[in-house]
From TrEMBL:
The keyword Zinc-finger does not apply. Its cofactor is FAD. This is Fumarate reductase flavoprotein subunit. Residues 7-438 form the FAD-dependent oxidoreductase 2 FAD-binding domain. It comes from Ureibacillus acetophenoni. InterPro entries: FAD-dep_OxRdtase_2_FAD-bd (IPR003953), FAD-oxidoreductase_2 (IPR050315), FAD/NAD-bd_sf (IPR036188), Flavocytochrome_c (IPR010960), Succ_DH/fumarate_Rdtase_cat_sf (IPR027477). Belongs to the FAD-dependent oxidoreductase 2 family. FRD/SDH subfamily. Keywords: FAD, Flavoprotein, Oxidoreductase.
Amino acid sequence: MSEQFNVIIVGAGIAGLCAAVEASTRAAKVLVIEKEAIIGGSSLLSGRFMAFAGTELQKENGIEDSKELLVKDMLEVGKGKNVKELVEVYGELQLNTYEWLKSNGVEFHAVRAASGHSVPRGHTILPEQAISTLYNRALKSGNVSFQLEASVKRLRKNSDGRISTVMYEKDGLEYFAKASEGIILTCGGFSKSEDLLEAFAPQLKAAIRIGGKGNTGDGLKLAWEHGAWIRDLPYLQGTYGFHPTASGEKKSQAHAFYKGAIIVNEHGNRFVNESLSYKLIGTEALKQPNNKSFQIWDQRIMNESVPGDALYDFENLYSLGLIHKAETIEELAQLIGIPEHNLLNTVSTYNSNILGGKDEEFGRNTLTHTFGTPIPIKQKPYYAMETTVAMLATYAGLSVNVDAEVLNAFNEPITGLYAAGEIAGGFHGAGYMTGSSLGKAAIFGRVAAQSALASTTEFKENVSMQ
Ligand SMILES: Cc1cc2nc3c(=O)[nH]c(=O)nc-3n(C[C@H](O)[C@H](O)[C@H](O)COP(=O)(O)OP(=O)(O)OC[C@H]3O[C@@H](n4cnc5c(N)ncnc54)[C@H](O)[C@@H]3O)c2cc1C
């Protein structure tokens, strides 16, 4: 006998929880199935940035932003390879979703500039706070039940050809559950699947693996069985900015390059414009000898350390022994084992180019995307952190339409099947704007629930009237 629900959600990261809360407010009977004992997936490990534009928090900080600028940035960073309609819906619904998250108790703390931002729009959350708040909100509604340590293994169609049933395993037993309105895949990406990474991204073999333990691409396989198409595969990229030890307990990460640090290889030579997306930097870093590179910065940048910040808490990384410090560039070079005169030469060439207003070598004239102005590295002491590339989120994913319906190779919806979050492709194209992954997960988690419950238009109409 199978249990009956209106909506079944596979995976309890931020996308699944937003879908659950949204569905619960529509009096739907919802089942969330999560493979791991602890909910949260990659969302729980995330760097905390959610990309929103035009928020009160930005206004309080004197930042002028708009949905139009956000959409422009995402399309620009994605080199126009993104599905424009999906990005536009992100733009249209993002402010409403920011307010909705706040009204459901999710706290936003600060706004920071990060990769792909032409103005600061990374709204920081504490992932544990956001995940536990949404989970409790879903539970409290009385409409949502959770099955933890339960892994969805297959999806089945009913006699009308509609995806209607999940088969899942728990405690070694097989269970079936039926959904009358829709099954929503929110089971994340495949950053922890060696077989899928080897098949689709062999160029990332040397990247360290970070991501939710359960993110093994199960959802892709579940949907492929029923003819789903996939988008953005050619653009799978790693993320630059992690210390080589970051695949362990601590996700030690520093983006000093977005504050003005330079990046050099083991010969002490720069190899990239440091203001580019950390995905593009990652691609170049993996081409360097022994995949080895270092961020180099000075005390002025060190002074911009932000306590507790996932990307900018340089002092904390220094106290953990992950950052080297020296009074001169030569001593720094000795500490990290690269030729002294090369590093000295690299820093002085960079400094004089920056002072002259033109980075002749790599064309850097901003800190990140079109934001900020680089200044010379010359205030001692100097710092270096060995930095590497991590495969932490896959971004390529199932083809979906603006209603979060999963599409087949002919762009036709696979009836009854929805997807949101990292498992959904088409949003980022050839590049990635920081915060848009958690952002799309929250926005399209809600859209998927509304579409399944056939009230998407109501949401969109409400938003366009604002
Ligand atoms: C270190 C790190 C830093 C990041 N920083 C940022 C950032 O600052 N901003 C940003 O926007 N993005 C960031 N990302 C990416 C972002 O965190 C993810 O893309 C996003 O959290 C994905 O959310 P999700 O809900 O789609 O998936 P997840 O949060 O990964 O949740 C998916 C869930 O599905 C479960 N699941 C998988 N298969 C099954 C199955 N067969 N049955 C049942 N359950 C299953 C998993 O166990 C998991 O709990 C970062 C990622 C990492 C790892």
